[in-house]
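# step 3/5: fold
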Amino acid sequence: MNSGTLSPSLTVSSSAEETLAANGRSFYWARHFLGETHASRATRLYALCRHLDDLADESSSPESARDNLLSTSNAIRTGVTSDPALRDGIDLMHECRISPEIILELIQGLLSDLDLVRTPDEAALLRYSYRVAGTVGIMMCGVLDVHDPLAYPHAMDLGIAMQLTNICRDIAEDAGMNRRYLPTTILGDIEPPQLLLPGENLRPLLWRSVSQLLDLADRYYASGECGIAYLPLRARAGILVAARVYRAIGSRLRRRECDYWSGRVVVGSRQKARITACTLFCAPLQRFFWRPPSKHDSSLHESLRGMPGTKT
């Protein structure tokens, strides 16, 4: 091979690494605790999901985005594409035994973002969170060579928890795109412009609404952690670190009284280091790290009946 030329596979791999480092700092931190193969696959999966997300958010128009996503759905079904990023994603699906129906659910979630986003209730929010993030949890099982169906609900719940955290953190950013994911049944019929810089009279309601969603996220985080023993031993710490770093975003948001409009909440390197040290030292001393739960809390999936990976 010419020293000045990269093969397509190496180019995709390098691009995936750069994408994760730039856009997924919590996951980039945690991936270092995975083995080489699993870390590489996790990076490629993140790059694929980011690529799909960019098709939705960075197209020239909603119509163009819809066409691109529908074309991508067809490529997933047929396995035929000339897009290098998508080609690598399809190869990863085959390598990790990831069912196409899972990623097609993800694309359905992204397509729903092209419509008017005014989430009506908690059930709709959970279905959306399943599609755009719970599915990623299921795909991560394949990436980590976990194919026990009993693991899927817990992996799904961890993805849902992270998405709920995202929604609480990114209210202003989403409002800038005319999207409101906070359910009407919790917040009321508030329009996105009111969420960009909320007035004093609206802030107590926002505090209660965001707190309620963070409480809901905590239930899903707890279920996600309960399933950690299904993972390969080395991967357990890495996934726990990622989950707890992400959960810390919600904790910081609470300490700011859910003030999301003053600047994006981030978890700094020192706090990541503290979370990592605590996880590495303490988690192996707890039963859940070694033994999976006797059963999954089916009430968490009442709104997800019939969706791939669910048991209800």
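# step 4/5: annotate
Confidence is low (pLDDT under 50) at residues 1-12.
# step 5/5: archive (pending)
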